[in-house]
Every structure is written in structure tokens, then in C-alpha cells.
Amino acid sequence: MLRAHWSGRLAFILAAAGSAVGLGNIWKFPYITGTNGGGAFVLIYLLCIAVVGVPIFMAELYIGQKSQANVVESFNVVAEKKTAWRSIGWLGLVSAVLILSFYSVVGGWVLDFLFRSVSGEFLVETESEIQSTLGILFQSPVRQLILHLFFMVLCVLIVFRGVQKGLERWNKILMPGLLILLLLMFVYSIWLDGFSKSLTFLFAPDFSALTPAGVLEAVGHAFFTLSLGMGAIITYGSYLKVSERVVPTALAVAGLDTLVALISGLTIFAVVFSFDMEAKAGPTLMFQTLPVLFAKLPAAYWVSLFFFLLVSFAALTSAVSLFEVVISYWEEAKNTSRARACVLWGVIIYLMGMLSALSTNVLADFKLPIVGLTFFDFFDNLTSQYFLPIGGLLISLFFGWKLSAKACEEITGAKGIWSIGLLWTARIIAPVAVGIVILFKILEDL
Ligand code: PHE
């Protein structure tokens, strides 16, 4: 059977950018920038993207493209024998299932705010009513389960249609849509009073505001935001024709992802500062602060609607990439149909996600033994702080030491400073940097 492929490089860039650009950029990046004091954190984050993110992105893309195989098999193919390194693929599969299970729940919250924006509900509510929206949703297990179901069904339907008819087609619609909406909101924010303050906050580094924990968070976020360390880029790369070049493609996706994060941050903080709100609001920033502020702006209905539509697009295009990792593996390894794989894993992930959806209500008081976290927090912490960095570290080592100089030369096109730089980044710099972070994280959690 002939393996599916993207129709071309642009299709791949849109899909991979669709995977990378998600809740990580629009929801998480602004709030962790806020809690970590702004500019200095942004600088460290940019450094992490450049030094650790981009090289590992290239390594994953190379492994996927070269092998034209699923996340587990790809390691065997590029190593030219059955290798223990393929366990990185198993870890990736586990990460994909875990991440998607709670990502879909948050996706459901976004849909809830989208529906409320469509109904115009925020326009007639008082400030405190709007602010309690998230809390009310948290208290409602049934509503959360239905929204989670809705999000998962959308995800399954897209992936079920396959690479070109599903993933590619929807990314081609949703990604440009997202970029246009984001730019509209950004241009709008330039005229707000808080815009210049937002610029200063993000781009004038104040190193006294940065903590060691902030540095650790920046590294972890670099993996999450670029969809690295769990095989999403390997899987998407495996549908890229072997003739496409890795470097410009990787730079385009990483650049786009970073740009979206920065523009989202600028826009959100312009709104926050225009109304003298706290930049440190934390995870609730997007859900509790923004709708309140939106309601005060001219054209409130449309601003809110556009914004939550944008976040829904971003969440969905990331979720399908997580799901595709599992489906492409299952389809090939079990020699079954895509439809069967989608139904089976859609159901399993939905059921696991129930644990997260119920973590804010029925199961709120249930803390997992030893770690002392709810299911939601546990799945989130375990994957973004441990599994993704560990996966990324191993991929970097595999690439640097096992595939070695030959792979680097293939990627950069020639022997020389760039291929040597890539080689030693993958061999030493990235693994050491990430290794230190994981170590500190373990110490912090003990
Ligand atoms: N990169 C996505 C985001 O920023 C999340 C994601 C992580 C997607 C890992 C796929 C794999 O929201």
C-alpha cells in the first residue's frame, strides 16, 4: 500500500504549524510570561527555542521524513535495524494519549466560551457574572463532559478522513483563518492605550523578575509549544516527500510558532494594561480576564467571537496532530483500518479525558497518592514537565550519536560549520541543557 503524503511543502508547513500553534501559544505563553515577569522570561524562552527547540525539531523532522514510518517504526528504519531506541516511540505514544485526554477538555472550555460569545451572553452580563463563567463550567460535570465529547468528535472526524482529505484540508482552512483573525486582533490592539506598555513588558528584559523556576518553565514550554518530544513532528514529517528540504521547513514552522506566541502575548497584554489589570493573573488570564475586558471594548461582540474562534482553531489543529501520532501507529502496527483505529482510540482517550473533566468537580477532592495532584494536573505535569523533555533529550541523543554526522550533513546539505554545529548541539548542548532542567525538576518535586 502506498503511504499517504502531503500535497507539497506548503501543506506540510501549515499542518506542522497547526500542530505547533495551539493553546500553548495563545493561552499558556501569555500567562506564564505574566507570572514570570515579562521580558527576561521571553528572552530565555526565545533562546530555548533557538538552541534546543529548532535543532530537535530538525532531528524529528529528519527521522520522520527519512523513515516514512510511524513513530515507533521510524527509529528502526533510520537505524537500519531493530533498535531499543524505538522505545522513544512508545513513550511518545503514551504522551500523545495523555496530552490529548486533557487537551480535549481544555478545548471543550474554549468551545464553551465560543458558544457563549456567539449567543452574546457576555454583553448583557455584569463583570462578576462574566468572571464566574469558568467557575460555573468547572462545577458542571455534565456540561464539561458534553463539551469534551464535542471536541473529541471533531478531532476524530478530521483524522478519520486521512492525511490529505482530513488533516491537510482542515489545516489549509483553519491555519490561514487563525492567522488572519490573530492579525486583525493585533492591529486592533495597537490602538489601545496599553499597547506601548505591552511592548515594554514583553521586550524590555528585567532580569530581577526572573527566577530559576522561570528558566525551567521556559525550557519545558519550548518543547510543548513546538510539539516536540513525543513524535508529532516525526509523524507529520513521515508524510513529507523525501525530496523536501528540512532546514527551511523547520525554520518556517518554528518561526511561525514563535511569531504567533509573541503576537498573542502583545495583544493580550495590550488589553490587560489598557484596563490596569494584573499581568500575573495566571492560568485564568485568558478565560477570566479577557472576556471581561472584551465586553468593555467597542465591537465587543465581534472581538470576543473572533478571539474564541481563533483559539478553537488553534486547539483543534494541535489536537489532531496528537491523535494522528496514535492513529498512524495503530493503523500500521495492527494492520487495521483508519476508521477502526479512530473509533477505538477516540473512545479510549475520551474515557481517560473524563478523569480530567471531572477533576474540577466530582473528583476535585481526589488527589492521586504520592504526587498529591488531581488527574488533570497530574497528566499535565507528567507530560509537559517530564515526558516531553525526556523524549526530546533521547531523540537528540539518538540523532547526535547514532545517526551522527552523516544525518547532519544530509540536513544542512554539506560538511561545514552548520552541520558540525547541529551535530554538537544534538550530541551535547541540547541534552545537557534539558538534562539539567529535568534534574532540577525532579529535585523540586521531591
Ligand atoms: N504545540 C501545541 C500547543 O502549543 C501542543 C502540542 C504538544 C501539540 C505536543 C502536539 C504535541 O498547544
Order of helices and strands: HHHHHHHHHHHHHHHHHHH
The structural class is mainly alpha
As a percent range, the share of strand residues is under 5%
- CA-CA gap between termini: 49 Å
Instruction: Report Rg.
Output: 21 Å
Overall mean pLDDT: 93
Reported for the largest beta sheet, the result is:
none
Helical run tally = 19
- Tell me how many strands there are: 0
Q: Approximately how much helix is present in the residues?
A: over 70%
Give the uncertain stretches in residue-range form.
none
What sort of overall outline do the alpha carbons produce when their principal axes are compared? globular
Tell me which ligands are bound: phenylalanine
What does this protein structure show overall?
The protein has 446 residues and is mainly alpha-helical. The chain has helices at residues 9-20, 23-35, 39-67, 73-79, 87-119, 121-124, 127-131, 133-139, 141-160, 163-190, 195-203, 212-225, 232-237, 246-274, 285-296, 300-333, 338-357, 375-412, 417-445. Helix 1 packs across helix 14, helix 5 packs across helix 9 (141-160) and helix 17 packs across helix 18. The longest helix is centred in the C-terminal third of the chain and has 38 residues, at 375-412. The radius of gyration is 21 Å and the shape is globular. The model has no long low-confidence stretch (mean pLDDT 93). The site of phenylalanine has 15 residues, from helix 1, helix 2, helix 12 and helix 16.
